[in-house]
Design brief:
Helices cover 28% and strands 21% of the residues. It is α/β, with parallel strands linked by helices. A 6-stranded parallel beta sheet has the order 5-4-1-9-10-11, sandwiched between helices.
Length: 233
């Protein structure tokens, strides 16, 4: 092993959690668990029907509580033995945490956090699965899921860009690369970095990039990349 661990940066999306039983967004006719995404994941949706949105995320939390990480998540956690790993995830589930990864950037927020609708800096843990109308911040304003909805800013985007720019190895896994600005991260990686993308249904934008294409499911594809990386150590 070299003296200095290489920096490995991962951009993950819904596909990495597919084998843990959490559905992706765009594999089912553009519906997310039976809902139009704008109904449950936009400021307009929240204004229109707060109960529906709270209930939707309550269900997602219940589902996440019982979900277990799959081999893809676990390989990423194990790679910390050999590389300085940062995971940038678009996922709001906590499966990267559950599998033991220690440096995770949740670009689109976290299911198990809530925040004040009037004071966005007031962020809380959600204990259990339920967030209800009437659950308020310390200043008395309704709490909402701490999720980045369509049309909202992505506060951690600059942090993510710096991480990707500094990567020696970059792995994209389980994202359709259709949602911006997250998808633009693939353009921030250095020319000299090793780059892989794992997806059983390869996004066409990836085919035009210089990412090495691994057209496989998350755990099988991660095992293949792990073998390549460990052989080169
Ligand atoms: N292993 C790996 N990838 C898989 C698997 C699997 N077993 N099954 C499906 N995939 C791939 C699909 O082929 C698809 O390319 O995962 C990708 C999932 O894409 P999306 O459903 O679009 O999810 P994602 O890219 O994470 O969505 C981005 O959109 O709705 C918003 O904020 C939400 O974070 C989300 C963002």
């Amino acid at each position: 092993m070299g003296l200095k661990m290489k920096k490995l940066v991962v951009l993950s999306g819904a596909g990495i959690s597919a084998e843990s039983g959490i559905r992706t967004f765009r594999d089912a006719d553009g519906l997310w668990e039976g809902h139009d995404v704008m109904e449950v994941a936009s400021p307009a949706g929240w204004r229109n029907n707060q109960e529906l949105v709270l209930d939707f995320y309550n269900q997602r939390r219940q589902q996440a509580l019982s979900a277990i990480p799959n081999a893809g998540h676990k390989i990423l956690a194990d790679l910390e033995n050999h590389f300085k790993v940062t995971i940038i995830t678009q996922n709001v589930d906590n499966l990267h945490e559950k599998s033991g990864s220690s440096h995770i950037i949740h670009l689109h927020g976290e299911l198990f956090k809530s925040r004040s609708t009037s004071h966005p800096e007031l962020v809380y843990e959600v204990e259990g699965w339920e967030l209800k109308t009437g659950d308020c911040c310390e200043k008395g304003a309704q709490l909402r899921p701490n999720i980045v909805w369509f049309g909202e800013d992505v506060p951690l985007m600059n942090t993510a860009i710096s991480e990707v720019m500094a990567a020696d190895i970059f792995i994209v896994i389980g994202t359709s690369l259709q949602v911006y600005p997250a998808a633009s991260l693939i353009n921030c990686v250095s020319k000299n970095a090793q780059k892989y993308i794992i997806d059983p249904n390869m996004p066409s934008i990836a085919k035009q990039s210089d990412l090495h294409l691994i057209e496989k499911g998350g755990s099988e594809g991660m095992a293949e990349v792990q073998e390549i990386l460990l052989t080169e150590l």
